[in-house]
């Protein structure tokens, strides 16, 4: 690439150069093919999620999701998660860094999901952390989540309350995720409560995608792809699990001290670390965001 401005006289030399360059970039960028779960990417040369996270672990993490009192019985399963993850493993989701980093990323992502979809409470059987994936949509929406937006205008009669694994709220967020996944979620937000694979895809897309240009994604900060600027450091935005909450929820969760909603997300992350066999002692630095200045104001944040 970038060697295309050949003059005829140098063609032979250029061919040699081109072949050499292609060889060099091939050996540097070896891609691998692991079947349907991961293919055509350098990340697929690493272990993939099913190499270290299996159905019994998923069942342990979300052990109460099919209890009779749960609200999405029979909806969520391991296969949907892995099928959705397969879109993002070639981009580094659960496939970046050493094995512990990979397992931690899955625990962190699912920690957010578990906390946001939990119906656990203090006296719930199995403890309050065993109830992740209890919901797949908001039960009693307090508003219609329709905001005037010329790019993604609300469709008449369609409601944009929270749905999915990292619940999506508001017409423009449904529009945005729908564009990314090439599914018309603006017209059919209900797909997120009808199709668990799609619900996980939307959630992993959110984890992998910066909220705004020039900002890191939750994935980037968690796996160490991001370095804080001086401004970030002054705002106490340092790499770690805490910053993933900052990115996803802004001042709904962060910069407010040790509030329950923040502690609840951290508790899920650490419970999953224990449950997956990593151990919460490896939670990493900067687990909370109690004193961080939010990247973005929460006003109608993508998730809340
Ligand atoms: C996984 O892949 C990434 C991208 O190629 C690489 O940076 C990382 O070192 C790999 N990890 C292992 C354990 O091979
Ligand atoms: C669920 O969504 C996935 C991902 O978009 C799609 O491949 C699949 O066909 C959908 N399943 C159904 C039953 O619509
Ligand atoms: C630094 O942070 C402040 C407050 O958050 C913000 O207003 C300012 O634009 C930031 N400066 C840079 C260079 O990002």
Note down, in words, how this protein is organized.
With 304 residues, this protein is an all-alpha fold. The protein has helices at residues 11-28, 49-52, 55-61, 78-88, 99-116, 171-181, 196-208, 218-223, 230-234, 241-249, 260-276; strands spanning 32-33, 39-41. Helix 4 (78-88) packs parallel to helix 7, helix 5 packs across helix 11 and helix 6 (171-181) packs across helix 7 (196-208). It is globular and about 50 Å long. Mean pLDDT is 90; it is low at 1-26. Bound molecules: 2-acetamido-2-deoxy-beta-D-glucopyranose (3 copies). One 2-acetamido-2-deoxy-beta-D-glucopyranose is lined by residues 183, 195, 197-198, 201. Residues 57-289 form the Glycoside hydrolase family 19 catalytic domain. One of its GO terms (biological process) is polysaccharide catabolic process.
């Amino acid at each position: 690439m970038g060697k295309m401005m050949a003059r005829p006289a140098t063609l032979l030399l250029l061919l040699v150069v081109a072949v050499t360059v292609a060889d060099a970039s091939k050996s540097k960028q070896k891609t691998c093919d692991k079947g349907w779960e991961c293919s055509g990417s350098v990340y697929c040369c690493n272990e993939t999620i099913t190499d270290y996270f299996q159905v019994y672990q998923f069942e342990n993490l979300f052990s109460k999701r099919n209890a009779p009192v749960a609200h999405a019985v029979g909806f969520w399963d391991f296969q949907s998660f892995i099928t959705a993850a397969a879109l993002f493993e070639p981009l580094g989701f659960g496939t970046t860094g050493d094995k512990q980093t990979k397992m931690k990323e899955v625990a962190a992502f699912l920690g957010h999901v578990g906390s946001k979809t939990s119906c656990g409470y203090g006296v719930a059987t199995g403890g309050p952390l065993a109830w992740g994936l209890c919901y797949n949509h908001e039960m009693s929406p307090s508003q219609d989540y329709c905001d005037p937006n010329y790019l993604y205008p609300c469709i008449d009669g369609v409601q944009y309350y929270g749905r999915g694994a990292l619940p999506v709220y508001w017409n423009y967020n449904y529009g945005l995720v729908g564009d990314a996944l090439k599914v018309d979620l603006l017209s059919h937000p209900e797909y997120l409560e009808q199709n668990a694979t799609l619900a996980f895809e939307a959630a992993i897309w959110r984890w992998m995608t910066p909220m705004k240009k020039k900002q890191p994604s939750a994935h980037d900060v968690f796996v160490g792809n991001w370095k804080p600027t001086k401004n970030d450091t002054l705002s106490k935005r340092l790499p770690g699990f805490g910053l993933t909450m900052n990115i996803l929820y802004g001042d709904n969760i962060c910069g407010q001290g040790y509030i329950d909603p923040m502690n609840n997300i951290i508790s899920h992350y650490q419970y999953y670390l224990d449950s997956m066999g990593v151990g919460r002692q490896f939670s990493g630095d900067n687990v909370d965001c109690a004193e961080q200045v939010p990247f973005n104001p929460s006003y109608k944040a993508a998730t809340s």
